[in-house]
Amino acid sequence: PVTVMLGYSDMLSRWGWEDEEILDEGIAAIRSEAENMKSLIERLLFLARADLNRLVVNREIIDMAALLSEVTQKGQLIATHHTLTLQENAPARIVGDVVLIRQMLRIFLENAVKYTPVGGKIFLASQPEGNRLHVIVADTGIGIAPEHQAKVFERFYRVDTSRSKAGAGGTGLGLAIARWIAEAHDIRLSLTSEVGRGTTIHLYIPLVKEDESAGKAPAQ
Fold this sequence. Notes:
Elements: H1 2-16, H2 20-51, E1 60-63, H3 64-75, E2 83-89, E3 93-96, H4 98-114, E4 121-129, E5 132-139, H5 146-149, H6 174-184, E6 188-194, E7 198-206, H7 210-213
Parallel strand pairs: 2-4
Antiparallel strand pairs: 1-3, 4-5, 5-7, 6-7
């Protein structure tokens, strides 16, 4: 991002004042790259704090049906060229940090939007399975080849073949953050994907235990 910003600022200093088209292009590009840099810095800081055990997980009882409804509703603001729906949304409560759980879901949703062509479908759903809530975030996007599926949650890992051809950039940090959040909440995380047919994220989240439901403070 810094290289792009410097390049455009140099171009603007030479020709931008005389050419309105170049001026508009340069300002738009610099703003876009500044937003990319802001996202990158925030994600690097998140992981740095996590590595130093300086991230506090504030646990409380969370209404997952309400949270999934909220994430889907707000997600429609970024999925303007896709069909985003919330399918089965089972009543369920979990214990966790609502800010982190929301962030994790948004990361998966943003990835689905990024790698799903215009007109594609994205959906969320949840249903109890034993003592866990099975949450899925699925899309009809370009998918991930089998040889890459085990690595996409690693830091800075980016698939430079079919996924990069979709024109979607990234830092390679979002899924690493999502995995950290999942591990901090004892959430089992898995992925199924097929090239050209889409990707599904599976989250198996522990449901509230009886003593927590009765009002006993959850462990920190």
